[in-house]
Structures
1.
Amino acid sequence: MQPVYLSTAYLGPVQQYCKMYQFGEVCLETYENYLKQTYRNRCTIAAANGPLSLSVPIVKPDTLKCLTKDIRISDHGNWRHLHWNAILSAYNMSPFFEYYEEDFAPFYEKRFDFLLDFNEELRRVICKLLDIEPNVTQTSVYEASVPNDFRESIRPRQPLPDPSFRPRPYYQVFQGKFGFIANLSIIDLLFNMGPESIVVLRDSSLPIRP
């Protein structure tokens, strides 16, 4: 099977991890020009008042265009403390938060210089917790046309149709208030479903059509 091409993502959505589950080979795009307002530096969790977006602040590049691999994290606004408090508030009553809390807490205490490094360290931990082992390689050049290209289709606003992704509903803490909210950050699935998360990934993944 040909590899799947994905962009980097901060605590990426369930759809992103469905691709990692489906494909043994993953090409992570690092030589694209960085795009704002994407999952590259943001995630969406289910909080007490509904979906909540958490954004990692970045240092504004000196040039109009900057490669994703060169994007630096800003320390502005004490964001690590704010993000962890938001996650704690949203999921401290979820069934599996206490099992995974110590896996995620260090990421909000340690300083990372580059967004890509931060995202990748989180991804490795998440894949381990999900019990999936994709072979992830980083691109060394940007190619406009690649197979299984999901670099731009998995996005917070106006995502492109994806016939291979059918979100399977699962238990969520605030489901009684808001109903099931599909395709949230992968941590929503992990904290609510624990070891059963991989079953949700499997049942949400449909065959890729040529």
2.
Amino acid sequence: MKNNLIKGSILVALGSASYGMLATFVKMAYKEGYSTAEVTISQFTIGVIGILLISMFSQRQNIAGNAATAGSNWKSLLKLMIAGTAMGLTSTFYYLSVQYIPVSVGIVLLMQTVWMGVILEMILHKKRPGNRKILSVLIIIAGTVLATNLLQSSVTIDWRGVGWGMLAALSYTITVYASNGIALHLPVVRRSLYLVLGGLIIIMLIFHSSLNMNFSFDIFWKWGIVLSLFGTILPPLLFTMGMPLTGVGLGTIIAAVEIPVSVLMAHFLLKEPVNIVQWTGIVLILGAVVLMNIEKPRRA
């Protein structure tokens, strides 16, 4: 039991760390002159191909079985693809945001999905959140003000980046709620395939005009493989294997490692400055995630 818990914790932590590296890699691609269209299209195209190959060689599935499943569950697959559009929008909005703001600010904005999820849960279930969740939301808002340096009068924040970042958090909230409740009877790899395929479709609809003579196809082997590996292939597989072993509460707490990983990656690779006030805000946000997900002691 203890070994399974440790194994699950490691898998979830690796999945979160993978997500945390993404924005830094995207910024590095931007510095080489690539656009958001080139980054997202290459990431999701290679992601679909990679997951498709994993699906084909998966021991749990075979081609005939896949065809039968597709025929009998086409509604479920369609729902997965629709949910995947939110995933594609999340990447698009997030990558647009880090064009204008530091990665450390972008990841903090993306984590606003925590309180957005509380509000969405309240609307869907028509139930007031508990006092602990309300307190956690207030702590996250306070932490966000500190982590984004809003109190520093000398710091100028590009509100275009903030706007894209909040849209990324909103679409990420929808992604989490939609994808975690759809076609749970299907194998993990197959669910991931259709989610990423839905993301690719919406990205192609948004950026189809960018597929012209100026599109740099060398993005596919320069950055596309790295971005798809850490953004669309590894995290879903690692989370799906790790979460059942840790439980949702502990898994969510461990997944918050995405924030410090993202900030540290940007600090060391992009030389983005992070002061003590920002670190205080980040610690507050991490504390709120723990407070929201830690289990209450039960009476005998």
3.
Amino acid sequence: MDQVNDSVITEFVLLGFAQSLEMQFFLFLFSSFFYVGIILGNLFIVFTVIFDPHLHSPMYILLANLSLMDLGLSSTTVPRLIYDLFTDSKVIFFHNCMIQMFFIHVTGGVEMVLLIVMAFDRYTAVCKPLHYLTIMNPKMCMLLIVAAWVIGVIHAVTQFVFVINLPFCGPNQVGSFYCDFPRVIKLACMDTYRLEFVVTANSGFLTMGTFFFLIVSYFFILVTVRQYSSKDLSKAFFTLSAHIIVVVLFFAPCICLYVWPFPTKSLDNFFAIVNFVVTPVLNPAIYTLRNKDMKVAMRRLSRQILSSREMM
């Protein structure tokens, strides 16, 4: 950490969106509206799972943790984006930039592993229903969640330890509305080709590998169900389709941000908006609208909240 103080650069400038006042106003309304939806939707899912005993099963516990990660991932960037839209000085201090990058990759890594765990949970429920309660018991569920956190922290730390010690003494303009490892590394006063490759391998290849693993696993589940009963195929597909939509929404922007060989500022900002603003509000909508038990539990919780207010 002492090497941080040797860096000449003490702050970075987030270039953000160089748009007209009308576009900035639109982005302000769009981001604010979606961020309120992110907070309300994801917290409502978390509280519903916590307070409804009918939802104390691995599937819904994992869903609540996914909602927390969506909320955390969005909160690392969206409030700053909204604040910077109408400020002339879009400056972020060095340490704040490092903290933002670290938590983006912690929450992103945890969410990536949680989606794998949720795929495993659905595989067990669909393909091995008689052994589901034995395999996905509460202890196993907690261990998988802890493992997701450990892997997410390791994923972030393995990149953070290299970037925090880089010398920054020249340009300080980040070509986006948030700090991220690939963009900040390019500002270092040294040859960072190898380090950029490591970051790409860590984030990009891991993202692509996880994405294809999940798609193949869902395909394998459907094939397995079809072999046993063609009647259950449509039911399994309906159950898994929500998971597949969430996986595509989460991984497609990540692949474009970390793997796309021809990045541009406008394209990167677009996919970042999708990743941080759109996807976190769509996830709770997809899971709640396509899940009967979740909708019933939310109605029950809403009635309890309304009745308690009336009593007050």
4.
Amino acid sequence: MASYLVTGSSRGLGLALIARLATFSKTEVGTIIATARQDNSSQLKEIVDASSGRVQLVKLDVTDALSVQEAVQAVERQLQGKGLDYLINNAGAMDWSPTGIEGMDNLTEMLNVNTTGPHIVSRAFLPLLRKGEKKTVINISTTLGSIAMVDAFRLLPSPAYKISKAALNMLTAQYAKQYANDGFTFLGISPGWLRTDLGSSRADLSVETGAEKVLDIIQQATPKQNGKFLNIHVPGWETREGANQYDGKEIPW
């Protein structure tokens, strides 16, 4: 019975991840910790209420170190002496700068949420992860953070988001290198362009598909993949025209 913690669970991909995890058998998925800055998501509360105690809601603001520490204490109580198996750093924010980098005035904010936040959370939960069997940390990234693919997405006016996700990729690599000998698996995963508030209704994939394919990767992850940046695999999307293909392969940094 593996335990999971997902940040940013009140909406979008985070909510879809919690909903899908709750459908797995208790022998496969045990305690599910849904965290969010606010606890006013009616959809998340419905999942929690219907879970017979398996899904637990914990308040956590990834940009607030005190909030994170309080969340660690709450999760430790809920795990009752057991370790945490999977940490999914999903909480994130996206900017919109019509004039491009010249009009970018929120880089610090994007870095705080998308890069520093996952660092604060990962560092704080390391003791519980060390006690877990899987010791797996997933950073939800994006192909928009790939420097090798910068030309493919040059027209999307979200420079601070791209920069912060590129920094997240390096953060993932740094953690992977430092904790490789301790049995950890740190992965960056791009969930694809999803139909969420962040991704818009014009996106390629439903959020449910994104959650399903992300969990496919997570549940098959091993320490041999430590430090990889992976794409989801959606049959039929492997060779689609345009910037987005979902082929299940490694994404260039």
